Amino acid sequence: MRFAANQPERYPGNSRTLGRFSELISEAVLRLPRLPQRGTLWIVTVVLALIVGLFVRSSLHRADAVRLAYGEQRSVLVATADIAPGTVIDESNTDMRNWPVGLLPQGAITSDSGRTATERIGKGEVIIDRRLSGDNGSGPETLIPAGGRAIAVPTGPASPAVGVGDRVDAFAPFDASRSGSAAASPTDPKFAARRVAKSARVIAVGPDSITIAVSALEAPFVAQASLDASIALVLVAPG
Length: 239
Prior knowledge:
The chain has 239 residues and is α+β, with helices and mostly antiparallel strands. It has four helices and nine strands.
């Protein structure tokens, strides 16, 4: 949501009303008995001053109504361009702007950042903490969540096309030896491929592998599946 700085554009009816008043005053002056030129100019000046005063008063009332409707404002960081994951947040793509407190998302950044975007941020969006890296700087390491691990996973023709910042689930084949069953039924959900990582963030993309950030608990399972060359990645929809 954006707020225009040019307030008169928000009330186009005011300029039309003022123009109509001026026309009416001009007609009234023409119908007045002939007066000395100085007296006529004095009347027109007084009437126009009253009209301008009423116009200003009306605009101020509207401004007060806007303040009452939205409440206190706070200066926050707003994207001035589309920001891709892995991009450092700085003055080239953000600006500090006033925003109604009642409309601010949770975790809005209230100062210059220097951190890296971990998700796509659209132009005009308020920058929030959970969409930025934990530390300042750039590079894949800034996209690893606190306590997480980064693992390179081999890709092949069947792998989905992904980019930095995308989320994927990682699956490994069902292990019949661990289940006590010699054969897996294709219709039994218990014997489906097991998910070894959920909503892992892609932090780097290479020609033959991608690097994903996983939790410390997921890391051993993803590493084993990767060593077995039996891992499948599934792209997760945003949201």
